[in-house]
Amino acid sequence: MEKKRKLDIQRAERPRKTPKSVPFLPQGSNDEVIDIEVTELLSKASISESNGHANGPENPSQDDASVQASTTKYTKPMELNQEVEFEIIQLSSTGDGLAYNSTRDHIFAIPFSVPGDRVLAKPFKWQGKFTACDYIKTIRPSPSREGVTPKCKYFTKCSGCQFQMMPYDSQLEHKRGIVQRAFKHFSGLKDEQVPEVLPTMGSPLQYGYRTKLSPHFSAPNEYGRQNSRSVVPDIGYNMKGRMRVMDIESCPIGTDILQEGLRIERKRVADNIQSYKRGATILLRESTQRKYHDADSTETSTSNQASPQGQLVHSNPIDMTLLSEDVHHDDNGTPSITYSYPTHTDTKTYTSDSGAQAKEYITTTTTPSNPNENLPPTTKTYHFSNTAGSFFQNNNSILGPFTSYMYEQCIPKSKSTNNGSQPSKSPIKYLLDAYSGSGLFTLTLSSHFKSSLGIDIDARSISAARLNAERNNVNNAGFVDADASALFADVPYPAAETVVVIDPPRKGCDKEFLKQLRRFGAGRVIYVSCNVHSQARDVGILVNGFHRDEEKRYSGDIAQPLDQQWEEEGLYKYEIESLRGFDFFPQTGHVEGVCVLNRVEKKMAEGSKA
Fold first, then answer.
1. Which residues are annotated as a binding site?
2. Are 221 and 228 in contact (CB under 8 A)?
3. Which among 152, 410, 530, 595 is annotated as catalytic?
4. Domains contained in the chain, CATH given
5. Residue 4 — very low, low, confident or very high, per pLDDT cuts 50/70/90?
6. For labelling, which of 203, 567, 574, 605 has a CA lying 20 to 30 Å from the CA of 283?
7. Which ranges constitute the DSSP H helices of 272-374?
8. β pairing state of 357-366 and 324-329
């Protein structure tokens, strides 16, 4: 164990090498994000130490200082693996507290800390301009910690959560700042091109919200253990700052039924450890069976129209006031939890089979598309079934408010001209849903449109989406099993009357997809992302085009608009209408971003297709 620790320290002392080739665009990784924010913090220190005169060799501007900070050759500020006290001055977008050294020319990143803390930490990994540290303890807590007690006994050791020591409103405000900084550093846009970020929408549940957990364990002979398949390894999540699993018996951000399942699955691994040749990941996915009190069927409808499968979608308001909770174990020890409400009961079970079907219910409140119609909002509950191992949002408690917000963004807000008339603009009538999965957006937004089309590369998700369309009586939605880059190959909708919803993986959209989208010229784009940094990068391309000298592009560049290329190639550009974060993962540093964009109308060259 001690030998391995020494090897880790030796590796950590080696500064990171500059990559020989720069990727097409930054990916928004944690390493990139903290590198940018550390560089900015060092440049502020450099400016504060100048005598305050205008730009000059001895008094650099912030831009000059940033360049200097990014090109300086750094030396290790101190020996690693010794305990040191630090004063936290800033919270990074990665969730780490940042502190200066005594000479303010180096940064230390300390997890589980907030501005105003004085903490004891142990530097363990030198990375050039900053050093990663292990958190030891808080010596003098910040006033912002007052009244907050972490609910997990593994907090400050496990890598899963970063913010259990912060009040929830402070978490939401910090995540708003993450979105702001992402667009500042990764979009290449000027300040006037980026609107003020709206307040982060919070999660109704801050603990007990995750409907999917995936603890894992390593092979028994790793980390110095004896090579014996009879040894039960640690089962849980990685330690903070280490590629090593720590033993986790419970996870308070998981739902109650998953806590029951975690206990059972841990015992199952221990009882059958000899059957594992190597490590594995355990899947725990919640599934819900709902029964409404107003009918014998599991789902009912005010219109009483059944789907082809005989299932009905519920369009009555539901009451989520909890009346009772009953935990039950069958003869095999399999758990279930039944929650009773005034309008229905929900029975929760879990599955560890990635090929099994998991069920979810999402209640969306929508307003009429036509503002001239004085109609009340409509509340509708959608029933989704998807393969347990496929992607589906892991916080059901926020999905209702989230899809309601998405619904409101599909149609541009009406604007009056000076003479009081409405501007001449094609109404949005069609939906293209890229990366559609099992149909979350395609179906919950479908009542806005004449027709909706979802596309996803996962054939299992597309199969589930088609069944979900039948299950929810959605007759105006179709689904295609293909890569998102093929979305615009044969679009049946007029571009100006179409909204495109994008929800890509963390790496964002590829170059070809963005070029096709700009050539298609959808009237409106709603970009949803679990990585606001790659989202900012892609939005910058939709607004300003691809960058000049794109192979030399780096984070923080201001893009040069390519208006001539737009005209020559018939590409459209966009402007940002709104930006907002959504807290799908309370207690963690993750934030989901939603960016709404409108097509900028332009005069096409004579003879060009309008």
1. 393, 435, 456, 503
2. yes
3. 530
4. 2-146 (2.40.50.140)
5. very low
6. 203
7. none
8. unpaired
